[in-house]
Design a protein that fits this description.
4 helices, nine-stranded antiparallel beta sheet, globular, 33% strand
């Protein structure tokens, strides 16, 4: 397949300029003008991930664990084959995937308690074995298999709860043949990832967010 990339897009800066590496992909169908989305095919992607629920506090805690793994705050919490820590370049997007919904009590909100947050690893790491190993047991490395997804792009501030609402609206815009291929979670909800490309200081209307609805092979 003729994949684009590695792409370099905006992660930092208040104006949303993109300077970090993002995963490569191939546009299978461009339906933005007609249906508001495009279908992309991604090759396998290496990620560092950790558990994350849908609360703001849960997102912050997960982000900090991953940021420490790559060395954002100083000494990276990882080890190479030589036993030394290695700084890992920041990439985009930050991925959030939801787990099964869990209602904690009659008064509590419904939380995605089994979700994950992930950083994609730079393309210089070709295999899991070549990437630095996390020293925090709550962070793990994984190879995401190649996949196809319907991708919707939008701006402004977003989080997992906002994405849960938007994904239903976006799913309704899918062309019929794509709608039939949507993957579902065990609880019957649509399987998707929230992809956020910008840091917290980016102006809301300059942010790049994506919702990727996973699709079964045609």
């Amino acid at each position: 397949a003729n994949f684009q990339g590695p792409r370099r897009r905006a992660m930092g800066g208040c104006l949303g300029r993109i300077t970090v590496e993002t995963p490569k992909y191939k546009v299978v169908e461009d339906l933005v003008s007609e249906h508001g989305y495009e279908v992309r095919q991604y090759p396998p992607i290496l990620v560092a991930e950790t558990a994350c629920d849908s609360t703001k506090e849960g997102n912050t805690a997960a982000f900090m664990k991953l940021a420490r793994y790559i060395g954002v705050f100083g000494n990276p919490e990882n080890k190479t084959k030589d036993g030394e820590p290695e700084a890992v370049a920041m990439t985009a997007p930050v991925l959030n995937t939801a787990g099964p919904s869990e209602e904690i009590s009659m008064t509590a909100p419904v939380l995605n308690s089994g979700g994950k947050m992930a950083f994609t690893l730079p393309s210089k790491y070709k295999t899991l074995e070549s990437a630095p190993k996390p020293t925090n047991p709550e962070v793990s490395l994984r190879e995401m298999p190649g996949f196809e997804a319907a991708v919707f792009t939008y701006t402004w501030t977003t989080d997992q709860a906002d994405a849960e609402k938007r994904v239903v609206e976006f799913a309704a815009q899918l062309r019929e043949d794509h709608s039939k291929r949507m993957e579902k979670q065990e609880d019957g909800k649509i399987k998707f990832s929230l992809c956020r490309y910008n840091g917290p200081f980016t102006l809301p209307f300059m942010r790049t967010n994506e919702i990727s609805i996973y699709m079964r092979n045609a």
